[in-house]
Amino acid sequence: MGFVEERYKISDPQVLKAVAHPLRVRLLGLLRTDGPATASELGRKLGESSGSTSYHLRELFKYGFIEEDPEQRDGRERRWRPRHRYTSWDSAEMSATAEGREAVRIIHMRQADLVRRVMEEFDLADWSREWVDVAGMNDHIFTLPPAALREFSHKAEELLNELAARYADDPAATRVHVWHGAVPRAPQEEP
Length: 191
Fold this sequence. Notes:
The protein has 191 residues and is mainly alpha-helical.
């Protein structure tokens, strides 16, 4: 799928808060993973009314996350596509205001909800032995400074981009969710 831009770097807490709405996060995710769709098509996938999905799609459009698909297949209803492959923001910049801190917190909660939903639907019986061997999640605890975590994040992204390019034509390749995240432990937490 061709994206207009690789990423959307948000610097306004209002914009981050706008995309943090649970249905908007899911709509944008579906457009990014499944490609262009109409409000009705997305409504059926999510069990929502087309009126609801249409409203939230217009909000995503208003804030620059999506656009009308120039290759419309349905003249009666707008077909939407994502403008960016992913969204990012500078958490330090966002944390300068209470509104920014709240927007970042909401986005992280939405990401955790997505992980939970995917894992609830994850059934090992649906996958080949090769996929069962590599799918899942890990939980590690390390003692690291912020610089090391920044380096890890950059290297992980570089490696994932390199692997996606190298294996793009592999017949065993399929779309996968890849998460990585880290938060400092609260001082009072026990190991």
